[in-house]
What does this fold into?
Amino acid sequence: MSITELDLRRLRYFVAVAEELHFGRAAERLHISQPPLSQQIKALEVDLGVRLLERTRRRVALTAPGQVLLEEARDLLRQAGRAVGAVRRAARGESGRLSIGFVPTADCTRFPEMVREYRRRFPDVELDLRTLHTGPQVDALRDGRLHLGFLRAPVDCQGLAIECFLRETLVVALPADHALAAVDAVALEALADEPLILFPRAVSPEFHDLILGLGRRAGIPFRLGPESDSTQTTLGLVAAGVGVSLLPASILTISRRGVVYRELAGAKPLIEMVVAYDRHALRPPAGRFLEIVRSMADLHPHDRKTDLQ
It folds into this structure.
């Protein structure tokens, strides 16, 4: 019989007897009675074909093969304990690998806090974070290269589960010296003649269409300015006086010289940030991250000061 074929329970029994050198104390330590303990040790000796213990009425002593088995058994039991622990940690989502995609504007939300909290709770999970626009994220979620995706709604995620964790209004980003910077709230009609800086439709078709749809429903033919696939680039263009932009209110976390933010007057459209995933392939680490997302969700828009400069 090889070491790998040994019964781990018998090895634990043997280690207890070998360390105590007393069947009674070993039985107490193992919380079993002495007769079955003696039977298991004898069965182990029969399986191995060697005597492991010298027994007399007064003492129990290890034989030379018994001493060797004691060291090997300790190692095997430690390895088995580590293996069981690793499996249980993986099942609880406390180890493994988690790949998350996020659109650039997600870093203005509570997403960074979620990541920090997840790393604090589950430091043994290898976290792979990727900045990706909507289309590439959805593709990666569907083929399993991503486990979670943080996206702007509306988004076509057919076949994926979607949960909203942030609902917010839009704000207007203006050059600091713009005439509209003098008002507290900007009417959508006032933007009709302003070059509007948008994300390219190829990068974020749903958000692009949402903004243009606001103008169409209000009868306002927006004048399109340069496109930008980066929030920071958009703000840089606004600061340069190239145009204005409509952005999620979470942009207020970014203070940019030469840029002011103003509320939209009248009815304020709500936009959402969502987390998407394949519910049929949800791994435990992703499930743990979702628990944090749900606990930090902000689905009730608050009145925010919009005079940051």
User: Anything to note?
Assistant: The CA atoms of residues 14 and 67 lie 11 Å apart.
